[in-house]
Specification:
Blueprint (H helix, E strand, L loop, with lengths): L9 E2 L9 E2 L4 H37 L8 E3 L6 E3 L1 E3 L4 H10 L1 H13 L2 E3 L9 E2 L1
Antiparallel strand pairs: 1-2, 3-4, 3-7, 5-6
């Protein structure tokens, strides 16, 4: 191997196996590098979209919904009277896994979780409470 580096032809101790390689002759190394770049970019965008969705959900939680006296409920199940608790169906762990591996199912699952939120009894978790 010649020791000069010209216009990005030589890759030193990079992804292609830890040794100098000539990308013009070694097509397997070029494929590995392109594959890793594509995977890295995909993961980058999944993380960016996931963070954006996370902050949108946090914003909706803090800005949306009834506050204070409008949040008072009476539970016909356990006779609790007081403030309601907001419940979200589904699992945050499953949502994170779906977002990490599969973009589209993660989006569908997140939309379902957001649409299935309800105000319930903080004592027994009953969904069909009476608003006061």
């Amino acid at each position: 191997m010649k020791g000069h580096i010209s216009k990005g032809v030589w890759v030193a101790k990079a992804i292609a196996g830890g040794e100098l390689c000539d990308l013009r002759q070694n097509k397997g190394s070029r494929f590995k590098i392109l594959l890793i770049i594509k995977i890295t970019m995909t993961l980058f965008w999944i993380i960016i979209i996931g963070l954006a969705l996370f902050f949108v959900v946090k914003y909706v939680k803090t800005k949306g919904g009834d506050q204070g006296i409008k949040n008072q409920i009476k539970c016909p199940n356990c006779q609790y009277e007081g403030e309601a608790k907001i419940y979200t169906k589904g699992s945050m762990g499953i949502e994170v896994i779906l977002w990490f591996f599969f973009l589209f199912p993660g989006l569908i699952y997140s939309i379902w979780r957001l649409s299935s939120r309800y105000k319930g009894c903080p004592k027994c978790g009953y969904e069909h409470v009476i608003k006061q």
